[in-house]
Amino acid sequence: MKMTRLAATLAATMVVAGPTLADTLHFPSLSYRTGPFAAGGIPFADGYSDYLTLINERDGGIGGVPIRQTECETAYNTERGVECYQSIRNDNPLVIQPLSTGITYQLIPRTMEDGIPMHTMGYGRTSAVNGEVFNWTFNYPANYWDGASVIINYLLDENDGSLEGKKIALLYHNSAYGREPIPTLERLAERHGYEFLSIGVDSPGQEQGSQWLQIRRERPDYVVMWGWGVMNPTAIQEAANIRFPMENFIGVWWSGSQQDVRPVGDGAHGYKALAMHGTGMDYPIYEDMQRYVIDAGKYAGTGDEVGTVLYSRGMYAAMLAVEAAKKAQEIHGVAAITPAMMRDGMANLEITEELMVELGLPNFGPAFSVACENHGGSGAAMIQQWDAQAGEWNLITDWIDPDRELIMEMAMDDSIAYAAENNISPACLN
Amino acid sequence: MPDTLLFALEASLNGLTAGVMYALVALGFVLIFKASGIFNFAQGVLALFAALTLVGFQSGQIPFSHLINATLGTRLHHFGWNMPTVLAIPATVLVMIGLAILVERFILKHLINQEPIILFMATIGLAYFLEGFGDIMWGAEVKALDVGLPKGMSMAVDDATFNWFGYGFYIDRLEIWAAGIAAVLVAVLTVFSQYTKQGRALRAVADDHQAALSVGISLRFIWVLTWSIAGIVALVAGIMWGSKSGVQFSLSLIALKALPVLILGGFTSIPGAIVGGLIIGVGEKLFDFFMNPIIGGATENWFAYMLALVFLLFRPQGLFGERIIERV
User: Fold this and answer.
1) Nearest by CB to B77, which of A234, A304, A305?
2) What is the largest CA-CA distance in chain B?
3) Does residue B172 belong to the interface with chain A, where contact is any CB pair within 8 Å?
4) What is the pLDDT of residues B183-242, one digit of tens each?
5) Residue-wise pLDDT tens digits, A157-194
6) What is the pTM of this model?
7) Which of A131, A365, B196, B229 is a Cys-bridge partner for A372, taking CB atoms 3.0 to 4.6 Å apart?
8) CA separation, residue A188 to residues A183, A199, A258, B54 (Å)
């Protein structure tokens, strides 16, 4: 009886105290703080949440409307991710960030049907760049195929413009995510004359003996990695073990965080990875973050991930979501926007360096604009290198553009095939 | 010697050392199954918990600091000192023994005479609990584990094979050490079970609970003993795997590598766990080596289970397992 009364009181309190749909902007987070990939999921979720908290605490929300955050645990499991989506789809979610390629593939048709925008930043289905087919999915500022192309362009620079006769191996997570760059690297191999070798690693990737024996036998000039979770430090450790030159080992942005290199210690020195955004705390925004969020004790998680690569990525994703919401408010002239209005904001988003400076994030991300024909931004990325002695990532290049002509051509083929399979008539929504 | 043969030989040697790593995990399963008939689903998580605790002690991390900070608004993380490995390992062993006592007190004691499936379900619950508890106690970030074991290519093997074959074989020194440690572990466990009073009691309980109880053997003590030993074996497995790729929550998934080993070697045989591990290790490496050009890579996970399935068809009890005939 006591329990029933307590439950009733709690429920009543939540109804009274809880924010209502009309007076908040709902930003859900499909996070994974548990399970085998938690080490990567936690900093991203913290960064995403802290930025939204900063906007609430410092600015009072977006356009005067407070942000309401909710978090649903997916454990990086596709089924649980879909369940999370089902649980929030009627709660006016402004944008879905699935944080998993597997979940993204499942949610593309659902979000399309429900009219809820989805942002898959640096992951998900690459051909979603075609906004005529994927009206509700956005993957700016870069996608996997951009990443693969940026790496090849970087290697071209390193080799005086020619990769003729070189051998490049792709070590990939044997999943939808890991297999994404294969077509791009194959096409680029035809164009630039390098020999391409793909080597799969079964999830989670703790045992890679066979793969690195193969690399030792085949002697590729470069190894490119598309890994996640424990696969990354294991691969870097194996590379160090067989004395593969670490400066010739380049990971995608999901293989380039502190979690990937620290367990390897000095052996990881010189390892390189793509960077789709800046990292570290040398940005003016952290003054506000410290004042309004950290010092105020309003940080998410434990507060010790601030400034790390994946925290920065979460923060960047939140920043892009907030800017899209501002754009939506501007387009529609209302502060309490709906998911459909948010989609319009995302479809017309324009990020300039002036805006980044204004936000306290100078040169943190590339300048880009979104349009119906291109939901994928600029695709530019930088290369960072791990300094094991200093324990920090250093950016060693400026923004490198991908081979966008080829990528758009491939994306068009793939998206048109998707449209035909799913009876979609390609057209812009606005 | 032709290159293909050399490469296959190198792959086989690496398979042997990888197999020992699998066997280290499988040993913990065998110990508990032998003594209590329980398939301990939590064995992988025990390895994770042991490794987390060891790193926590080594780095002077304050247990439950995240919980304390969230509750009290403090910013505590470390004691400010590091514990030497020689002290951290015994301290972790004590924690694992304490955990064994708690498991017996709060789970097993209440499930005496229950069906094996009930006990199995209880270990699933324990696995989920321990994973969450480990997270709250030590945090979920990836931690580097260094207990002073050498890592990297063995130059001795490289030089020797280069002199013999004109091609230097690669073998990870960590895995050579793992083979030595596994050999010592098996020897100690064998001596313990054959020549000590507690070991004989443990075998008596394994043979027949009721008969063991009737001659005055304490079932509860034996269960604590078994889970303590399994905890120590889990610590060894956690150290070896944690040294390889850091201590993170995916460490619990190494249990998946032990299952085919157990099916092959038998659930009740310590030598079976070692032999099963070696067969799986060599089999998967050779299969990958020969079949990779034809069917592509990433065969290691499913090949181990395929091999185990074939064994199940012909020898369901495994290579060294006890053949159980039940009359109906």
Assistant:
1) A304
2) 68
3) yes
4) 999 899 888 888 999 888 888 887 777 888 888 888 888 889 999 999 999 999 999 999
5) 999 999 999 999 999 999 888 999 999 999 999 999 99
6) 0.89
7) A131
8) 9, 17, 30, 47
Query: Which of 284-323 (B) contact A at CB < 8 A?
Result: 284-285, 288-289, 292, 296-302
Buried b (16+ CB within 10 A) or exposed e, A260-269: bbbbbeebbb
> What amino acid is encoded at A307 in this protein?
G
Instruction: Single out the residue of A413, A2, A245 nearest to residue A236, CA to CA.
Output: A245
Measured CA to CA, the distance from residue B90 to residue B227 in angstroms comes to 16
Q: What is the ipTM of this complex?
A: 0.86
Q: How many angstroms away from the CA of A215 is the closest CA of chain B?
A: 12
Q: What is the percent of chain A where pLDDT is above 90?
A: 88
Return the H-helix or E-strand segment holding B135.
Answer: helix B116-138
Residue ranges per structural domain of chain B: 3-314
Please tell me the distance in Å from B249's CA to the nearest CA on chain A: 5
Q: DSSP for A92-134?
A: -BS-B---SHHHHHHHHHHHHHHT--EE-TT-S-GGGG-TTT-
Domain B3-314 indexed as CATH 1.10.3470 = yes
Q: Which residue of B has its CA nearest to A241?
A: B152
Q: Which amino acid belongs to residue A87?
A: S
Q: Which domains does chain A have, with CATH numbers?
A: 17-142+284-379+409-421 (3.40.50.2300), 144-275 (3.40.50.2300)
B63 touches chain A (CB under 8 A): no
